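lol ok so funny story. i was supposed to be doing the assay writeup but got distracted and ended up predicting the structure for this chain instead. priorities right. anyway since i did it might as well share w the group, maybe its usefull for someone
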Amino acid sequence: MQVLAIDIGTGTQDIYLFRSGLSLENGFKLVMPSPTMQIRGEILEATHRREDLLLTGVTMGGGPCHWAAEAHVKAGHKIFATPDAARTFNDDLDWVSREMGVEIISEDEIVNLMKVRQIELRDFDLDTITEAFNVFGVRLDPQAVAVGVFDHGAAPPDVSDRQFRFDYLEERIQAENRLTAFAFLSEDIPPIMTRMQAVVKSGNVLDCPLVLMDNAAASVLGASLDTRVSALSRAMIVNIGNFHALAFRLGPTGIEGLFEHHTGLIDQPRLEAMLRSLANGSLTHAEIFDGHGHGALIRHPEKLDLDHGDFGVVVTGPRRTMMLCSELRPYFAVPYGDMMLTGCFGLLLSVADLVDELSEPIRSAMTNIGGDIAPWDISDY
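and the output, tada:
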């Protein structure tokens, strides 16, 4: 039995193939450039060649490809884009046209631009992943596929993207107070989660369940599977991503609190202060939001002691070095010996939670080294 997990970030896409009957350490894995970095490279090449561009496909993660597109137009070259592709840069298509200079065209107009260099946008390319495994003699035949992406959601024009994102996080916790609440079978994805919906459109997954999950929550969930972390009854775990830092305070009843901020707007002292405030229950939503972050939520008033025990804060993510030498005594999680696959392991556990027939072999593999899955990772408390 196979489960394919893909954690799509800003810098890399981390790919893991779970095979039942084998230890997780023996799963095949790839760490490759993220889709947005790949598109960035294609746009930069077109800029160098002084070519106009036609962007088609679906909404995907922005960042590097967004910046490359802006530079392409500023260099005097044209970009045409279909509506779904253009929403990669902003849900407000008028803004994309007005501020970036991208010309929005309909699907019917593509035929008139056949001589323009075309780039297809999408976060998830199962055919390419399958081909990569085939090169090494590995035949993909997954019984489930799980994909992690960061999705702000499609906020109405008069609503802050940051507030909209945090309202969504809070609503999910109120509905199901556990980390796997941020995972969905493809048919259950909320309509507002447009990037997740786009993965479903482009994924070409027809014969097995497809699970989508917020990749920041998946990384925190994966970090909790580290044996030293899962032995705790309560823990603070922070995922420091390239763009966003998301911290969860976790305990026997589930999620006790959280905050989310933009990584580029904080430094180590600021992050330490927010983590301490989250631990003692004093952190406010206004404090984070007014500092251009997404927000904060406290659900459990009892203080979490970060100053005693073997370590204080559990850390994961591509910018985890921000917490090196921190006064909060960080522990850098390495679930199953591999930090880069932290998100994939969280995705795998979410498949176990959502796909009943795969639950037993996945959970069995995740506890085969004598440890237990931590209480906040279980769906029936």
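The chain has a mean pLDDT of 93. Residues 36-121 form a domain with the Rossmann fold fold (CATH 3.40.50).
back to the writeup now i swear
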